[in-house]
Structures are given as C-alpha cells and as structure tokens.
Specification:
This is 18.1 kDa class I heat shock protein. By secondary structure, the chain is mostly beta strands. Helices cover about 0% and strands about 40% of the residues. Strand 3 and strand 4 form a beta hairpin.
Length: about 80
C-alpha cells in the first residue's frame, strides 16, 4: 500500500455530483479500480508493476514507487 499513499486527490461537490481527480502518473485507466463499498465509502485502488530488469541493467536512481495502493473516502449520507 506504500506506493501511492501520498497520491494527490482533489474532491469537490457540485450541485449534480461529487467529483474526484487523482494524480496516478504512469498508470493506465484499466489498472485503476473505482468502487463504492457499504453505500458511502468510495475506494480507489490499483497497482503499478515493477519495471522489468535485464541482467546487465545498472540503475542509477529509482524514485517511482511500485506496488499496490488504496485510497478511501467517506461520502456524505445523501450521496448517490
């Protein structure tokens, strides 16, 4: 869960909806799962795979985390 624990998420409410925007660089849309649990918990989850390593590769810097992430947000009772 450490990979994106600090993933930035913006949440705003409009008269029509609750709008979430998340910065998840490097992930494809199909690698991110968005679901509602227990009627009012929005969960955003996914996984970034580790980069393929070749035997002769020599990394100089690794700053992009790999692994699973989960972010949960409690929606207001009146959210649909």
């Amino acid at each position: 869960v450490a990979a994106f624990t600090n993933a930035r998420v913006d949440w705003k409410e409009t008269p029509e909806a609750h709008v979430f925007k998340a910065d998840l660089p490097g992930l494809k849309k199909e690698e991110v799962k968005v679901e509602v649990e227990d009627k009012n918990i929005l969960q955003i989850s996914g996984e970034r795979s580790k980069e393929n390593e070749e035997k002769d590769d020599k990394w100089h810097r690794v700053e992009r985390a790999s692994g699973k992430f989960v972010r949960r947000f409690r929606l207001p009772e009146n959210a649909k």
